[in-house]
Amino acid sequence: MERHTTLGEFIIKNQQDFPYAKGELTALLSAIRLAGKMVNQEINKAGLAEIRGKAGNENVQGEVQAKLDVLANDMFISTLRDRGDICGLASEELEDFVVFNEDRHKNANYVVLFDPLDGSSNIDVDITVGTIFSIYRRISPTGTPVTLEDFLQPGVNQVAAGYLIYGSSTMLVYTTGNGVHGFTFDPGIGSFFLSHPDIKFPESGRIYSINEGNYVHFPQGIKKFIRWTQELDEADKRPFTSRYTGSLVADFHRNMLLGGVFLYPTGTTAPKGKLRLLYECNPMAFIAEQAGGMASDGYGRIMERQPTELHERAPFFCGCKKEVEKIEWFLKQED
Ligand SMILES: O=P(O)(O)OC[C@H]1O[C@](O)(COP(=O)(O)O)[C@@H](O)[C@@H]1O
Ligand SMILES: [Mg+2]
Ligand SMILES: [Mg+2]
User: Fold this and answer.
1) Which CDD domains did the record assign (predicted)?
2) Are the CB atoms for 321 and 204 separated by under 8 Å?
């Protein structure tokens, strides 16, 4: 049987691809891998009463947290603090960013932003969920406590981004700006193995992913795009297929492998969109672009947006280039 490359081997082998290669990013990716294994262990038994259900308190997003939101958040924070060379982190589940004050942290150069559990509404019904992470080099001087500025960087400054997907198999998919690579977890061996090297979005796809239940609230341009996907045009292989799980990571992953586009527009119920620019949009956008796809806020490259708040939301359109361009075209028609 062909011996697959483990994630650990791959990270070390490709370390030199990285401009500042001193092993810090390697240590950080390894810490994320470990935290991912720990969270995966809990998700696999999410049906048990002590794991499923709500934790009871509301997070900064105004959502009632699931027990697994809190557990995943704690596991990532403790593992990144103890093993990752980072000076601070920000989580979708925490109001403020966290500053690590030990000397080894203050002298570190990276910050991590993450969504510990993406697709929380699906946990108790056993539908695929994920974890999303985004890594930046700090801009404040090394040796000083990390500042808000270090987190409010445009997506184009990301040095690495990725996600864990906890589905029929558990995978870790990431980029450091040298393509997108996917690793499948083998629970029997306890390691991630390279299973999807150099993943690419097809130029065009036939799947659209949007919560059509919000149709009445959508901008005209989005309503027109949806109707365009549903028109009969065999030459253009329309109508498209509709696929939507309610987990961004799962919808993105399927669309990247099979060809499709994900949409979460603004709407009267979500005037700024729903997804979080820093924890969800930017990391998925970096992966999409590295895989030959496109990620837009409807009017331009989402990674060029200058964030102003830790938890700001944005409209998000991401997937095959042709379809994202079509969405931008329909939206611009309306202006
Ligand atoms: O239920 P809706 O409004 O369609 O929203 C679904 C979207 O919200 C999310 O669940 C938000 O993520 P969280 O679960 O991390 O809060 C996305 O994964 C998903 O794409
Ligand atoms: Mg999320
Ligand atoms: Mg979440």
Assistant:
1) FBPase
2) yes
